């Protein structure tokens, strides 16, 4: 058994058994998520856990309505079909017993004020902000959450495909936390056995450069 087996237990789970997830288990997973690294240790995340099935279903319907609205702007049928065919993936969380929304909060970019003071170009400022350290913090927390879930018999699916409906979801959820916005979400539950698989990964040689 490899010391890294806990990594390979994680899969993107889209189908769940009809089994409740105890609140204490959820708290343990969120605690694990908060032990992710974050720039300047700002921990600029906030987790909203929804266990009410009617509310989860309503969020799925919000995504469906927004999808239909955006699809109506398509210039042609091909563009419309390309967009709407992914709707089923954007609402797969509706069959999960738990939905976790991860919000990102304010983050201070140390060099930003200095670049502005020196009259930096928009390209220089763009290059500073492009790595999106604030969102990297959220990504690290999400990965911790999913790894912890997989290692304790649960599963989830990192989702950002609903981001086009973020404003509407935020309004429905009603979280009042200054400067925070919905960045990603994951369903959570006991996975169907058929879901315990991962797509093939690129060869290590393709994604690795070693400089000695």
From TrEMBL:
What GO MF annotations does this protein's record show?
oxidoreductase activity
Q: Please name the Gene3D superfamilies in this protein's record.
A: NADH Oxidase
Pfam family of the protein (one): Nitroreductase
What residues does the Nitroreductase domain cover?
7-184
Recorded superkingdom = Bacteria
PANTHER family with a match to the protein in the record: NAD(P)H NITROREDUCTASE RV3131-RELATED, NADPH NITROREDUCTASE
Q: Write down what this protein is called.
A: Nitroreductase
The scientific name of the source species is: Maledivibacter halophilus
């Amino acid at each position: 058994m490899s010391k890294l087996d806990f990594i390979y237990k994680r899969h993107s789970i889209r189908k769940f058994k009809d089994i409740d997830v105890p609140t204490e288990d959820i708290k343990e997973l969120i605690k694990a998520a908060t032990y992710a690294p974050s720039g300047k240790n700002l921990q600029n995340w906030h987790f909203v856990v929804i266990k009410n099935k009617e509310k989860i279903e309503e969020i799925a319907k919000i995504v469906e309505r927004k999808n239909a609205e955006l699809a109506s702007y398509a210039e042609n049928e091909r563009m419309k079909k390309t967009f709407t065919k992914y709707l089923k993936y954007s609402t797969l969380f509706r069959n999960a017993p738990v939905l976790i929304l991860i919000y990102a909060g304010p983050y201070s970019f140390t060099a930003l004020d200095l670049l502005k003071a020196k009259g930096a170009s928009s390209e220089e400022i763009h290059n500073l902000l492009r790595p999106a350290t604030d969102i990297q913090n959220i990504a690290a927390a999400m990965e911790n959450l999913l790894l912890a879930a997989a290692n304790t018999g649960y599963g989830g699916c990192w989702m950002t495909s609903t981001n086009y409906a973020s404003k509407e979801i935020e309004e429905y959820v009603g979280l009042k936390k200054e400067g925070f916005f919905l960045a990603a979400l994951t369903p959570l539950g006991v996975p169907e056995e058929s879901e315990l698989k991962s797509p093939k990964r690129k060869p290590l040689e393709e994604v690795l450069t070693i400089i000695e």
